[in-house]
Amino acid sequence: MTTLLVIIVLVLVAIAIWQMTKMFELSQPANDTAGIATDEDNKLNGNLMFAFLVFIYILTIYSLWKWGPFVLSVPASEHGQDYDRLMWISFALIFIVQFITQALLHYFAYKYRGQKGKKALFYADNDKLEFIWTVIPVITLSGLILYGLYTWNVIMNVDEDENPLVIELYAQQFSWTARYAGDDNVLGDANVRLIDIDKANTLGIDESDPNAQDDIVVQEIHLPVNRKVLFKMRSQDVLHSAYMPHFRAQMNCVPGMITQFAFTPTMTTKDMRMQPETVEHVKVTNEIRAEKRANGEDADPWEFDYVLLCNKICGKSHYNMQMKIIVETEEEYNEWISQQQTFGDKIAAQ
């Protein structure tokens, strides 16, 4: 490692010396016409600019065709439609502005390339143009920001009258643990200082808190469809991020504090698997996995499932932070939750 660092430093020093040499040359008085671009140079650069314009649009079209099937399918949460609408409006504006400005930039670089005897028209200032290109972005960005704030407030508003199902997501390097609030729908107190590995109290739940006795700790999340879920999030060690892409939900898990995010799942896992976009996604993914298996790689066939991911690079095994989420009917959820052992029973059994 020391040798590598020495080599990097030497390379950087060499680059710095080279740059200083170039700066010294540029600071010297010009001799004759040395270093002045000719018409052939300007024509070449103009053609290259125009060619690059064609290249970036071909690359964009190819990328959309090649990786389009991997775009997330329809949202599976109540607020997902608002989230996607805001995203696609932003994308549309960005693509339209990018298409126009980049086309003009590269085309003008080609059309108005330097030629001997041609002089550029110079504007010292133009109040009208400056007003136009200032006001239009201000109006556009103000509209996006206001719409974004409205959407954010709608998403983050939790109506207690809806009696949301309360679940804690506990993040640690490099795994997730979920804790259901039990019959009283109130999570018991917890603190990392109360973690007791010998008692399998890996979340630091306060054993003396009556609200903690019916809490249920699991390694797989089950959610009833069409019922609001309020996630309370904690982190044991570093900054993590609870990311549930199909529900358009993400919130940081910060050590020393509790964050939260709520949403209502609107589509069961079975229903999502039948969506045309999901079927196509699974098909394309399994075709790739089949090619890998043919080459001797370990790539089993894949079946769609909702998933909880960590969206912060939290360490060398960051990619392992995944938890399966199953959305099911109310009856199926009630049957599953009734089979789980409560925290109080687990402690009493030890």
From TrEMBL:
It is a multi-pass membrane protein. Residues 162-339 form the Cytochrome oxidase subunit II copper A binding domain. It catalyses: 4 Fe(II)-[cytochrome c] + O2 + 8 H(+)(in) = 4 Fe(III)-[cytochrome c] + 2 H2O + 4 H(+)(out). One of its GO terms (cellular component) is plasma membrane. It comes from Imtechella halotolerans K1. This is Cytochrome c oxidase subunit 2. Its main location: membrane. Pfam families: COX2, COX2_TM. Residues 64-159 form the Cytochrome oxidase subunit II transmembrane region profile domain.
